[in-house]
């Protein structure tokens, strides 16, 4: 009998390790031969720990399971039970998705190359090895894949720049410094299907002529660090990495580097400084990292999800991937739904669903049962969207047209008890704390921003134009997105929720 219990950090936080230990104990005491697989998460966080049992009818799900439930699950033969959810893939949350990047996450043993191959893994790499560098870059460009880390820059253009650069050494750097609130897709893929990231990096390396790669993981992700390091080891043993990738004679190897907790190191040039052992501060551009990146050499810097999506593009073809989405937002996007929401978790779908369909239809509204007041999309630097904008399709240009950002596709839901003036203050305070200090608009502007919001809270209406002007200065003058994007949550709160700012005046007057 094969039973799956996630080793995903979210599942472990909810007791998955204890449940796994109890399953092992129950099986031993009952004399039942059980193969326990510690898989990744399926993304239904509200059902974790989610236990799956392999049956002739398919994999059956049970959740959320506690240690006290395990004996009864064995008594029922992992059949009829109050926690039974039916076949996992037929649960509504799963059945409504278009899983491409996350097709194997939660399905396979993350550290089994055989399991990975049995579910389509390495097919993309084998195809890439039969192609020239120019063909690999063109395939990536034709797919319409854009950076999933925030800026949405076309991946193929970045690769071509590095491929065309003349240098004795080139690098692939994976940005796994996933620091935005409500984002966990990078962590989930590294813990649940790390070999797809390794395969994607190998394809990128072969495509641009890079023989070395680094995965820069935030220090707050100990489980992801552990799994990625182990996955690199098994990949080397299977010749997926090394001096001759899959016997092709083409070399690519990689290693994990761990950050030290600075949010700003999610910005690519700060990350590169940190990777080199320097202080994590923003570099002025130009030169671009694609020309002078890690150690001054041409470097591809891509997000985890961007690189983890590459294998499916090469397995199924650029045209297949590009067929999903809308406008210039092609393919699928892993939505990370969190905050005050009934059904929080990861939901992968094609670009194009409206914000309302995501929050109400997928997320199920608020966990508190109160009306949704705002949704922040794109992490702590994303704009707050009111219900009046819930008809906005989820796409890069569509959100930009409403003064918003998709960013890493994290969504934080707030009910009508949220104070948007306080949220605006938090954005400025966050920027002030996390600023690397390199540029004045961010370093000083964020501190003055906190002071100005506090003036408004004390009833000083004259401070509102000052806040607006300050936001414009930060947006136009900051060296990187930390200072440049902080005005998005501040101005969206001020624009869409003016009553929260007026209430401050009234309370101060009283």
Could you give the topology of this structure?
Blueprint: E1 2-4, H1 9-13, H2 16-30, E2 35-37, E3 51-55, E4 58-62, H3 70-75, E5 84-87, H4 92-95, H5 113-118, H6 123-129, H7 133-142, H8 155-164, E6 171-176, H9 185-192, H10 194-208, E7 212-217, H11 222-237, E8 253-258, H12 268-275, E9 299-303, H13 304-316, H14 318-322, E10 325-326, E11 329-330, E12 332-339, E13 345-350, H15 355-362, E14 372-377, E15 384-386, H16 396-400, E16 410-415, H17 420-434, H18 440-457, H19 463-477, H20 481-485, H21 487-496, H22 498-509
Parallel strand pairs: 1-2, 6-7, 6-9, 7-8, 12-16
Antiparallel strand pairs: 1-3, 3-4, 4-5, 10-11, 12-13, 14-15, 14-16
Helix pairs in contact: 6-10, 6-13, 7-8, 7-10, 9-10, 9-11, 10-13, 17-18, 17-21, 18-19, 19-21
Protein model, in words:
The chain is of the alpha/beta class and 510 residues long. The protein folds into 4 domains: 2-95, 3-Layer(aba) Sandwich (Glutaredoxin); 121-322, NADH-ubiquinone oxidoreductase 51kDa subunit (Rossmann fold); 330-415, Ubiquitin-like (UB roll); 420-509, de novo design (two linked rop proteins), CATH 1.20.1440.230. The chain has 22 helices and 16 strands. It has helices spanning 9-13, 16-30, 70-75, 92-95, 113-118, 123-129, 133-142, 155-164, 185-192, 194-208, 222-237, 268-275, 304-316, 318-322, 355-362, 396-400, 420-434, 440-457, 463-477, 481-485, 487-496, 498-509; strands at residues 2-4, 35-37, 51-55, 58-62, 84-87, 171-176, 212-217, 253-258, 299-303, 325-326, 329-330, 332-339, 345-350, 372-377, 384-386, 410-415. The strands form 4 sheets. A 5-stranded mixed β-sheet has the order 2-1-3-4-5, with helices on one face. A 5-stranded mixed β-sheet has the order 13-12-16-14-15. It has a 4-stranded parallel β-sheet with strand order 8-7-6-9, sandwiched between helices. Helix 6 (123-129) packs parallel to helix 10, helix 7 (133-142) crosses helix 10 (194-208) and helix 17 runs antiparallel to helix 21 (487-496). It is globular. 55% of the residues are buried.
